[in-house]
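Table S2 (continued). Query chain:
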Amino acid sequence: MQLLKLLLNGLLITLTLFFSANSAATEKEYMLKAGFLYNFARFANWVTPTYHNDNFTLCSPDETFINIADVALTKRSIKKRPLVNKHISLEPNSIKLCDMVFITSKTYANWKSTPNLTYKNILLVGENDGFIESNGHIRFFLSSGKVRFEISPNNLKIDGLTMSSKVLRLARIVDG
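Corresponding output:
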């Protein structure tokens, strides 16, 4: 009985350390991705710019990401418009108030199950395999332990956006 109690306590400590380390890794990765998103927004061009409350609105259905982005991107602006991070639900009235939407791996399945959303004039960034093929614009991926990204200029063009050649040179270019 004593041995079982020791094993269970050891397992509990191991799981706590694992999830704490995993949480810190997620936070660091989201901080880095928030920086990438900021630069994507700086170098993207909207054929028809939106001006929701005179802000540039970065949205995500992942509240954890939005909380991290609030810290990472505090007091930033995009094209002279204050950057606002907004937690949204995946429904048309929420999406239409966004300039950019980030779909994390936690929210990907929910995003895939809502095909009626339109993303005209909205920069759409994700991190799952198949994201570009599902009409996403930019997808993060890991390569040799580093965050990289791929871009579909065709998908951008369809939704009324273009990306600077400075960013395209750094990306893996794919067709949607």
